[in-house]
Amino acid sequence: MTKRALVRRPGPRLAEGLLTHLERVPVDVDLARRQWEGYVAALAAEGWETVEVPPADDCPDAVFVEDTVVMYGDLAVITRPGADERKPETAATEATLRDLGYRIARIEAPGTLDGGDVLKHVTPEGGTVWVGLGGRTNAAGLDKLAAHLAPLGARTVGVPVSLVLHLKSAVTALPDGTVLGYPPLVDDPAGWPEFLAVPEEPGAHVVVLDPSTVLMSTSAPATRALLEDRGLRVVAVDISEYEKLEGCVTCLSVRLRD
Ligand code: CIR
């Protein structure tokens, strides 16, 4: 199976990206460009081919390509981002996925949904899709996504998100389905069936690269050690400039299934 992921090059206005929970601090755009190259190189080194969505230089947050689509098998559900500034980002994602041969569905008004609010755990028995309801994703967006995914056997569940930007800023999942999060920023840690508390905020963010490997930020060394103790291999990348903009490792790519 080809392992393929969408990415989107950062634009010149990156430093103007939206902030909700953090104070603005200067972003070094040249460093951010190098960190993006490092992120793409890390994917490539792990056998992931990357496909670039054409850049959207007028959209400061376009590099966070995860927010523009939810992939489920061969279906690409194009989102309707909750922030108006980000709504123009979806057109090129849709065109790219259409060209790659994926089926296209859309979240339509009045629904809003950001891909960062969607956490999937798919097993041969079926999939569970948790959708964070917070500042960016509303109930109509969740309902629309649930309607698109139900025929594919997915169960969609809404969960509250009030302490961070997106559900996946609070929690992500390991290959075995264990959900990890930094408890002070998780609305309901006890609500997850298998929850692993991590000691650092960026430690909550992993991208599963294969059944025994995860990608995470270099800014969570104690969590890295915790995961290595569980037998996982960890690939770490420095994404400091994106973390200043409330981004994390998950936001910078979208993994595709063939
Ligand atoms: C925003 O506020 O939309 C961006 N500055 C950060 C988006 C991060 N995306 C993600 O967590 N999926």
From TrEMBL:
Hydrolase keyword on record: yes
InterPro entries linked: DDAH-like
Presence of the UniProt keyword Transport in the record: no
Annotated keywords: Hydrolase
Taxonomic superkingdom: Bacteria
NCBIfam families recorded: DiMthArgaseDdahStm (NF045660)
Family, similarity comment: Belongs to the DDAH family.
Name by which UniProt lists this protein: N(G),N(G)-dimethylarginine dimethylaminohydrolase
Gene source species: Nocardioides aquiterrae
